[in-house]
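Database export, one record per block. Field names are fixed; values are copied verbatim from the stored entry.
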Amino acid sequence: MNIHPIIVHFPIAFLFIWSLCELLPISRWFKSINWTPIKNFLIVIGFLGGWVAQMTGEIAEELVGETELVNTHSAFAQASMILFGIFAVEVVINFIKTKYFNIYYKFGILAKIVDKALQLIQNKPFRFLLVLLALIAIFVTGVLGGVLVYGTSADPLAPFVLKILGL
């Protein structure tokens, strides 16, 4: 039984909404709302759900068999998980830093390396680029998943994406 199509939609929605919150000036539009906990929830739950979706996708791949389309879909799913995973890990590390400050900095050089990585991720242009790449990766993953299930006629963007990817 293939449960991948059932599982995959919530993580995509959460990660898509998180991406929009990161890319658009939502905090300026809705100044009375603290967006940090909302975005933290979206990225962590979206990433964990994406991890489950990826596992069910690997099971579905065994049922469907390997094709170039399936392999490309899988590659974009992995890229999505890596990119969104960076931001989910950032949230977890920031939580650890605030709750367990003394323990965190006992790791010395490792804590300094992690702090430098966090500074890079929080650099606005670099962050924007990573979020945009993550959004594109999950978009292409979704389009290819739709093509696998419904064919090329269900999504008007599918032929365009397939042509760009040479599929």
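Remark 1: The chain has one domain: 4-165.
Remark 2: The mean pLDDT is 92.
End of record.
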